[in-house]
Specification:
125 residues; alpha+beta; 2,3-Dihydroxybiphenyl 1,2-Dioxygenase, domain 1; five-stranded mixed beta sheet; four-stranded mixed beta sheet
Length: 125
């Protein structure tokens, strides 16, 4: 068994094809704080995890990203606000799991670069 322990997620990379358009979406639509950017990449803060948007360095990295699940307190309100900003949702907020006194709700959407992401909310019942 390995003698090390992973300490957590420090950054999530999201490939983009248009860095200017992607910065606008993540900053102006998702309302994430832009830490800094260059011509090829941008860094955003998201609840203690850094999101890196970048133009792929090689063709093997030109693909959609893993799904980033953005945690929100009121999934229905945020869903409605993003719909009003013309965000393309793949579904409506829906219950995906119930455990003890907590319900987990999700809804999936496309970013400006056609990556699929999700909003999630854990609600006490």
């Amino acid at each position: 068994m390995p003698e090390y322990e992973l300490q957590g997620v420090g950054q999530i990379g999201i490939p983009v094809t248009d860095i200017t358009r992607a910065i606008s979406f993540y900053r102006d639509v998702l309302n994430l704080p832009l830490l800094f950017h260059t011509e090829r990449m941008a860094f955003f803060a998201c609840g203690g995890i850094r999101l890196l948007l970048s133009l792929p360095e090689k063709t093997e990295f030109e693909h959609q990203s893993s799904i980033v699940y953005f945690q929100v307190a009121d999934i229905n309100r945020v869903h409605q606000e993003l719909l009003e900003q013309n965000v393309h949702f793949l579904d409506k907020p829906h219950l995906v799991a119930e455990r003890e006194q907590i319900e987990t709700w999700m809804t999936f959407f496309k970013d400006s670069e056609q990556n699929t992401h999700a909003l999630m909310s854990e609600v006490s019942v």
